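Q: What does the assembled structure look like for these inputs?
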Amino acid sequence: VTAPDRRIRIGVIGCGAIARRAHLPALARLAGQARVVATADVNLAAAEAAAADWGADSCDDYRRVLGRSDVDVVLVATPEFLHREQVTAAAQAGKHVLCEKPMAPSVADADAMIEACATAGVRLMIGHSRRFTLRYLRIHGALDRGDIGDVRLMRENERRAQPPGGGYWAGGHWTGDPGRSVGTALTNGIHETDLMRWFTGSEPVAVAAEHRVTIAGNRGVPDFLTFTVRFADGAVGSSELVNCAPAGYPSFHQLELYGTTGSIRARDHDCASVAEYHPDRASFPGIANVLLHDADAYTREHAAFLAALRDDAPVPLPPGESRAALRLALAAVEAAETGRVAELPLPGEAAA
Amino acid sequence: VSAVRFELAAAVAGLAGAAGVAGVPGVTGGAAAAGDALVMIGPDPAAAAEAVSAGAAVLCLPGPDPGATPDPALLVEASPDSAGPGFVVCSSRLRHTDAGQQLAAAGSGRLGTLISAYVAVRAPRLRSPSAAVLLWEAMDLVAGLTDAPLARVHAVSGDGLITAICRFADEMVMTVDVAAVTGVTSDSAAGGLGVGFEAEAELVGSDGILRVEPGRASVRVTGADGAEDLPFGTSPVRGMLAEFLAAVTDPGQRGALLARQRRTLSLVTAVGAADPARMGRERDRCGGA
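A:
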């Protein structure tokens, strides 16, 4: 007699780079808890490749995945301009949803996604992978313990080298298409806006920003952004995102947190990527992986989501948090476009 | 300050010896006369003003501080470009580090068209210069990277910190982020540039990036053909002093130095006009400087 397979059954919608490099390897690590039963991508070959390791079915229409009774959860790993349609459809089909960040290109889309899932009684979580990196979990733990007092300044800069041809900002890729992409504020900066709120524990009240198009072949989508944020408790956030570094330049994330009694730094290009400074000591609590496509982080993210489903518990990262990160990122875009400080809440919107 | 005083004493002795003149320790502002060149260490802007009135040239350390009376920045602004009455220049130690010199050189063409500049200065929480003084040093470092008019400036401040974003008419964007926030166990204060505070700088151009890494005694320039490390280690004080003395003796160099300082002053003033403390309560100001 064969024991029934009680693993959670997953349908994958979108089998591009982020699914291939991050989500599918993470799910492979969790094969004892979950299995991929169906995949979909407008590029059928990509869907077939993603399905192959699992012996899953594949197709080029995500609606066929949603129509299957043997799918419990869908992983939505498509560009953000498709999220509202696909997440809403998944909710209406009764599927729980883990959706890749950024949540959506607009707060209105995010609200529609949250409402659709709430109405359908299914779980929704947005995959802000950095919340699940060992680096930032440890830092947040240190902040929770009060190791550095109240955060007064957080800075995180990101650098990305551009591959030959300009990478996904050029060559016809949707990220460089102004009709489909908001730009680096959502591609990269959504991480920083999420982390700023998480680490300061406060809500933003104003943001100033400047952005530029810097990569040859980019059709007009800002790929450079610098922004600074004032939070309600007086903390300050700062971030500069550069995607045009020459090939060979080390891609990195550089975080500084300064509190009332100590500070924390974490940098990809250091060997010890977390260091804490106190009046009487400095400590180096561990080595953590470089952030980009950190396999452990994606594995934790999926495991936490699956555990919430299994235990009928709240998801570890409620969608309201992702909406708030999106709102701050879009405020930075508004500030950059208008050249004026964007104050929050934005005109005509509720604070949360 | 004591380290600067020591370095200055050595540099003054060396330069004075080379010039065949004697240094006179202990001369105060009030005792200065036309033609004297004074280096004033510490916050004594009133003495600096008195010396300038007497026709002396004054190198004022540290930099401008809006809390001081009079603010040395006002003396810079009032200083004449050509030979004649006295003038004031303010600290520019960061710019005179080897890293600062390499950054300026890279900005003049090696990196192609400049896209952005990032400068972060971190100083100890205790016994640090004010954030305004740190801002002067940081702005002085990058003020010469573009001659384009300032199009917009945004700033936000907090306890001991100022973050500013400047966009210029040529599209270049500078982010300057200064904070007196590090603790006594931080690895920042002693490392790298030898100026008593930590600086990180990154200059992004169309053809490459120059990066000054905190705590490291070299600049890395990365271009399409690979990376090059440019080590440094000489004291910035000697270069700063040499520039000051050249301005004393050469009206042309004086004009260039004062023009540069006015450019720095215009940026610092614009950041102040953005009034960081008001950000979030009313709209910032645009244009100007």
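The radius of gyration of chain B is 19 Å.
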